[in-house]
């Protein structure tokens, strides 16, 4: 895309309660997911200027399936409909929602993994885009860690989905797919595998705390030795 880097959209800040979605067919609940979703994408205005648009996802609806085939695999998917930044589009465009779709498939060693994802954007007339709509597809270089073994779920403080010309961040993510639950909520005993980012943080925290305590002990010991040396010198001086 040509042009400069104009930006607009909502300021993404603060901590929000995670949105919650589930996919159910009959009595079977196969997907449960919760996250705070934010993103940004690029599009061209009619002036050929490139705009970077940041957005929050506030859900207006969702759908999905527990039994589907895609790319020669058995898949399950969740499709989230939303209006970016709670935008109020013109009346004639009000039913044109944006959509984030995530497909899950079984892995070789995992019960589930992310097979693919897409972001559909409808550019409302105030956005002055050169095209009315666009589907952003997964980047060839996207690395997605989301997945888990056995009956475990997956959780991560920030799990990005990389598209061509767009990025979506799943913050405070918890998800399970290819489950057979009888509730649209996570079971109270549900176990989660952590993403590598959070696992590294969990490993680093005890090291930092230990280093701080060791530093404190050394400081106290030095203060004690200095005080003792001064006391000895004062004793010699008095003699």
Written description of the protein model:
- This protein is an alpha+beta fold and about 240 residues long.
- It has 2 domains: about 20-195, Porin (Beta Barrel), CATH 2.40.160.110; about 195-230.
- It has 1 helix and 13 strands.
- Strands 1, 2, 3, 4, 11, 12 and 13 form a 7-stranded mixed beta sheet that branches. Strands 5, 6, 7, 8, 9 and 10 form a 6-stranded antiparallel beta sheet that branches.
- The protein is extended, with a radius of gyration of 26 Å.
- The N and C termini lie far apart (about 85 Å).
- The model is unreliable at about 1-15 and about 200-210 (pLDDT under 50).
- It holds the Pfam family Lamp2_2nd.
- This is Lysosome-associated membrane glycoprotein 1.
- Keywords: Glycoprotein, Membrane, Signal, Transmembrane, Transmembrane helix.
Which fold name is given in CATH as the topology of the largest domain? Porin
The fraction of residues assigned to DSSP E strands is over 45%
Radius of gyration: 26 Å
What is the straight-line distance between the termini? 87 Å
The CATH architecture name of the largest domain reads: Beta Barrel
- Uncertain runs are 1-15, 202-209
Q: How much is the average pLDDT?
A: 86
Morphology: extended
What level of helicity do the residues show?
10-25%
How many domains would you count in the coordinates?
2
Mind summarizing the main beta sheet?
7 strands, mixed
The string of secondary-structure elements, in order, is EEEEEEEEEEEEEH
What is the number of beta strands? 13
Keywords: Glycoprotein, Membrane, Signal, Transmembrane, Transmembrane helix
Protein name: Lysosome-associated membrane glycoprotein 1
Pfam families: Lamp2_2nd (PF21222)
Transmembrane segments: 204-226
């Amino acid at each position: 895309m040509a042009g400069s880097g104009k930006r607009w959209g909502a300021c993404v800040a603060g901590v929000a309660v995670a949105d919650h979605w589930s996919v159910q067919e009959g009595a079977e609940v196969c997907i449960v997911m919760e996250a705070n979703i934010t993103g940004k994408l690029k599009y061209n205005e009619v002036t050929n200027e490139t705009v970077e648009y940041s957005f929050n996802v506030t859900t207006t609806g969702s759908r999905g399936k527990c039994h589907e085939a895609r790319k020669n695999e058995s898949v399950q998917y969740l499709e989230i409909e939303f209006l970016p930044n709670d935008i109020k589009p013109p009346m004639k465009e009000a039913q044109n929602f944006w959509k984030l779709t995530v497909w899950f498939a079984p892995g070789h060693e995992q019960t589930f993994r992310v097979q693919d994802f897409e972001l559909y954007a409808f550019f409302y007339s105030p956005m002055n885009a050169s095209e009315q709509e666009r589907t952003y597809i997964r980047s060839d270089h996207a690395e997605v860690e989301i997945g888990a073994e056995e009956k475990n779920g997956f959780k991560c403080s920030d799990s990005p989905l990389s598209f061509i010309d767009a990025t979506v961040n799943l913050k405070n993510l918890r998800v399970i797919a290819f489950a057979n639950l009888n509730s649209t909520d996570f079971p109270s005993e549900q176990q989660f595998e952590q993403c590598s980012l959070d696992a590294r943080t969990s490993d680093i925290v005890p090291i930092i705390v230990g280093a701080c305590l060791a530093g404190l002990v050394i400081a106290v010991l030095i203060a004690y030795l200095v005080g003792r040396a001064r006391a000895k010198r004062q004793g010699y001086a008095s003699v």
